[in-house]
Amino acid sequence: MSNTKYVFVTGGVTSSLGKGIIAASLAKLLQERGYSVTIQKLDPYINIDPGTLNPYEHGECYVTDDGAETDLDLGHYERFLNIPTSQANNVTTGKIYQSVINKERKGEFLGKTVQVIPHITDEIKHRIQLLGETGDYDIIITEIGGTVGDIESLPYVESVRQLLWEKGEENAIVIHLTLVPYLAAAGELKTKPTQHSVKMLMQSGVSPNILVCRTEHQISDDIKRKLALFCNVKKEDVIQSIDAETIYDVPNLMFEEGLDKVVLNKLELSSEKQPKLLKWNDFVTKHKNPKSTIEIGLIGKYVELHDSYKSITEAFIHAGSSNETKVKVRWIHSESLSPKNVEKKLEELNGILVAPGFGDRGIEGKIKAVKYARENNIPFLGICLGMQMAVIEFSRNVLGLENAFSTEMNKSTKHPVINLMEEQKNVTEKGGTMRLGAWNCSLIKDSKVYQAYKSELISERHRHRYEFNNDYLDQIEAAGMKATGINPKTGLVEIIELPNHPWFVGVQYHPEYKSTVLNPHPLFVDFIKAALKQSKK
Predict the structure, then answer these.
(1) Among 213, 311, 415, 504, which has the minimal tally of Cβ within 10 Å of its Cβ?
(2) pTM
(3) How far is 536 from 520, CA to CA, in rounded Å?
(4) For 11-41, what is each residue's pLDDT tens digit?
C-alpha cells in the first residue's frame, strides 16, 4: 500500500482568496525540502472541463501535455513546481457524474440505487487517490474549488471527511483558507467570518488542522489566540497570509510563517532539510529590480478580464525577469481597433502580441494590429489565432489575395488560407475535440525560432481546430513569409516568420503554457529581448 500523505485545501468566507497560490507555495516549499509533491484541483461545476466555457466565466482554459483542458490553477501549479500536470490533476463534478452514470448504464452497481453517498463520494475518493497510487509522490495537495457551504461543494467535503477517517490523522490533514477582514469604521480586524466559516466546515464533519488567514493588516498574537480558541486549533496552526506585492513572494511569506513546518509535523515527516529557494529568489530579485522597462500591446477580445490571458502575462513576467526588464502590458480590445485609430492605439509600443481566441468577433482589429507591426518593424508574436491572423494579413496585403480568410469566420471565402483540419470536418461535439496537448515540431535551422530554442525538434501544447492551408504554402513562401516549423507527422505548418523583419513570429501552438519560473519560455525570452532592442532605438 502506498504511503502517500494527503493535504486538502478548502476555502471559506469568499472565493478568490488564492487557494491555488497557497497550495502552490506550500508545494514549492515541500519540494525544496526534498519531497516529491503534486497538486490537484477539484472543481465543483458540472461542465466536464472548462474547454467550452467563455473565458469571461472562468478565466483562461489551461492545457496539459496529455491534452486535458483544465482550470487555470493548474498553470500556477506548473509555474511554481516546474513539473507537468496531467488529466488526473483536474477533476470536475461533470467528470464524476459522467463516470458514475456510465457505470450505472453498464450495470456495474449490480442493481443498487445509485446515490451521492456512497457512489458519488467513492468516485471522488478514487479520483483523489489516483496520483497517490502511482507511487511517484510523497505528498498530494488537493485544492477544493468554491467555498465551504456551497451546495455543489458538499460531496467533496464529505469525501474529504471519509478520507480523513480512513487514512488517519498522520496521513491526511485539512488547511482551511479564510478571510480576516479589516473594518475601517471600527479600526480593527474581524474574526467572526472565519469563525462562521470553520463552524460551517465542522457541521460537515471536517475540523481543519491549520488555518491560513488572508488579511490586509498584520494579525496580532491576540487575534491568533482568539482564532485558535474558537476554531479548535493550536495558536501555531494559525498562519497569516498578508497581501503580497507579487504572487511569487508567497512561498517566502509562507516559509516565514512556518506553514510547511506545521504541515510536516502534522504528517509526521522530517522538516530537517531547509528550503533554500536560491533560483526562485534570484528570479524574484530580478523581477522586482528591473534595469529597463518596455511596453507590449496585448491584442485580444477578452481583455476586460485579465485572467483570460493569465499564462501569457505570467510568461511575460518570467521572460522579463530573465531579461532584467519590466514588461508593462497595454491591454487593447481588438474590436476597438479601426483604420482611423490603429496608429494612435499602437504607437510607441515596443512589441505587439496578438492573442489566441475563437470566433469572428474582433478579427479585423487583430488583422490591423498585425499589419501595423509588419509595416512598422515592431517585434510581433502571434499565438494560435494570432498566427492565423498574420497569415491572413500577409495573404491579403502582400500576396494580393483579396478577402483571404479562415473558413472559421467565412466558410465560402475564395482564398481559405486557414482551413478546418480534415479530421475535424465530421466533429459535431464542441468539448475536448480540438487538436489538444503536446505535438512535435521540426525547426528550420536558419530561423528566429531556432535561435530561440537552440533545438531542431520541440514539443509544444495545442488547442485549436483550424490550420494553415498547405495549398497556399508555395505562394506565401515565394512572397517572403517562411514556414520555419513543421509538424513532422502531419506536415502541417506550426510556425511562420518574416525573415526581413526584426522579429516577426507566429506560432500555431501555445508557448505560454510551458513557461515556468525556473524555465522561462525561450520564445517569450527572445520576443522580450527583441522588444527591448526596439525600445533603445
Answers:
(1) 415
(2) 0.92
(3) 23
(4) 988 887 889 999 999 999 999 999 999 999 9
